[in-house]
Amino acid sequence: MTPLLQADNISKSYGSLSIFTGISLVINKDDKVALIARNGEGKTTLLNILSGKDTPDSGKVTARRDLKTGYLEQDPVLDDNLTVIDQVFSSSGEVVKTIREYEEAINLGDKMLIDRLTFRMDALQAWDRETMAKQILTELNITEFDKHIGQLSGGQRKRVALAGVLIEEPELLILDEPTNHLDLDMTEWLENYLKRTGMTLMMVTHDRYFLDRVCNLIIELDNNTIYRYSGNYSYYLEKRSERLENIQAATDRARNLLRRELEWMRSTPKARTGKSKSRIGDFYDLKNKAEGTHRAENIKIKAGTRRLGSKILELHHISKSFGEEKVINDFSYTFSRFEKIGIIGKNGTGKSTFLNLVTGSLKPDSGNIDTGETVRFGYFRQEGISFDQKQKVIDAVRDIAEVVKMSDGSTLTSSQFLSHFLFPPQKQHDYIEKLSGGEKRRLYLLTVLMGNPNFLILDEPTNDLDIETLNILENYLTTAGICLLVVSHDRFFLDKISDHIFVFEGNGVIRDFPGNYTHYREHIIKMAGQKTRDQRPARHSPVRGKQKPKDAATGKKQGKKPVTGKKRKLSFNEKRELKQLEKDIERLEKRKTVLEEALSSGNLTAEQLQAYSREYAEISAKLDKKSDRWLELSELD
């Protein structure tokens, strides 16, 4: 193993707040590491230190000489005045400058300058970098490359920052919550990209499927101690459970011994001789061991809920548009008691709009919404609420309610309720600005549940929450006597809590699918595989014969177009793209053949069958896209 980065005995505090003390870890070449810890234990702080963005108060971080590191921050800082493509290349100034100069030379028709810049573009490998950047941005649904950063949404900014670190192809890639603001297709694309890449990876994420499929090493930071698990997330769960059982067994044994030692310590002074001093010291060591080193406290979600009547919520032929954009078109549904529905769809297909219609924040253009008299909504919004950062945690909660009613009819003070959500008295009197991002999200969830809702609406609830909090939230949601609507890009979360899902397909279409996310995904893969088999005679490779391109508007095959003038010649960039497309298509065809043979062999496990089917569908889609582009360019060649 070749160490790339090593932290030795590092500590970090902010004022009187100690984040962690004396921790050490090593990242070796080819490791794909996930860092797991509770909110507030210093995950982001540790990443900042490992990336060089921050420094430890004590200890040291040693990196291999000339190690190239890329870091995606949880809240990246971008230049509002740059265009998307310039921001992506902002750390490679010479590459961007050369590409821009080359494009200007083409526009001017300056042959001597073009020749000179072509040589420089070759030396910098700028051709491939620009093409790769645009491909990655397109996969992340960023297609307006000349749009200024200041015009982008928060989610788009995070995706541009992600593209920026990926295009750099660093040897060590550090990612802080990379799946936030990615829809399900983007998350699966990133998952596959990181599995294929040769980059060493260190990341923080709450996406447990992502962890399981990408990572080969889990590092857990628990109670200021580092634990290493050489395996994926499933392996980590198994070994962590064993570790905690061993701790509990050791603690139980220590408690039994402690009881006997207590009897001796309480005996008369005459029974103690000078020879017993070591035994007295051992008693205090035993006492510490009996108290245990692992914190057993967990969030306790026992919020009360109001009784639901027989009539819940009825949507009758609702439609909603913004200008000419149809978001929801003639959708009807009648909700049943206690049903739990997941909502999926690409960004911009109307998911948040739908939630706002359900809660009455928006009115439909047509149709009507009939809400039962007993329904009380609790709405956890994606953007959260604006806490006064200078306010203390306890004061923010008391502003909402002094007393909270629980599910068993009892009541808790606001301070007691905070304790249930792992805000102990000391933390309750901290200012909100001192909380981590995950702690702020947990505080927001607490304020939503204080209202005792019986119809809970969650818009991206998993962002910034630690895995332990997510587990407890999932258990609450699956057992609580409430109705639930949840928008999430967390596949694991959706699988655990949803009875069925609403699929937002775009153009106002909402489809009700009877199953969880994995069932839906398997159905899509099966349908894609069937469609591909039906179309198998039409080969993709340009070497084996050209296909007629599809019309972008109708999706139908185009016939020959009449000649309307002199045909445009390919630019230098387009010639390079054409050559690259031929290589890509040949590579994809070979991989597709391998997958076809494997899928028809009958020797695959269920897990392999699912993985190969997914890859087969992805490759088929890529072949379609690249073949269409190849045909477009080849007609100009």
Q: How would you describe this structure in keywords?
A:
637 residues, Rossmann fold, 6-stranded mixed beta sheet, alpha/beta
Distance between the termini: 49 Å
Question: Which CATH architecture of the largest domain is right?
Answer: 3-Layer(aba) Sandwich
Strand order in the largest sheet: 5-6-7-3-8-9
CATH topology of the largest domain: Rossmann fold
**Fraction of residues in H or I helices:** 40-55%
**How many strands in all?**
20
Molecular shape: globular
The oligomeric state is single chain
Strand content: 15-25%
Q: Any idea how many domains?
A: 3
Largest sheet: 6 strands, mixed
Mind telling me the C-alpha Rg?
29 Å
How would you concisely characterize the structure shown here?
By secondary structure, this protein is of the alpha/beta class. Helices cover 43% and strands 19% of the residues.
Give structural notes.
There is one protein chain. The protein is an alpha/beta fold. It has 3 domains: 3-235, P-loop containing nucleotide triphosphate hydrolases (Rossmann fold); 313-515, P-loop containing nucleotide triphosphate hydrolases (Rossmann fold), CATH 3.40.50.300; 522-550 and 570-634. Helices cover 43% and strands 19% of the residues. The chain is built from 20 helices and 20 strands. The protein has helices spanning 43-51, 84-88, 93-108, 111-124, 126-139, 154-167, 184-196, 208-214, 233-265, 277-291, 351-359, 393-398, 414-420, 425-428, 437-449, 467-479, 491-497, 517-534, 572-599, 606-634; strands at residues 3-14, 17-28, 32-36, 58-63, 69-72, 172-176, 200-204, 217-222, 225-229, 313-322, 325-334, 340-345, 366-371, 377-380, 403-405, 411-413, 455-459, 483-487, 500-506, 509-513. The strands form 5 sheets. Strands 5-6-7-3-8-9 form a 6-stranded mixed sheet, with helices on both faces. Strand 19 and strand 20 form a beta hairpin. Helix 3 (93-108) packs antiparallel against helix 4, helix 5 packs antiparallel against helix 6 (154-167) and helix 9 runs antiparallel to helix 10 (277-291). It starts with a strand and ends with a helix.
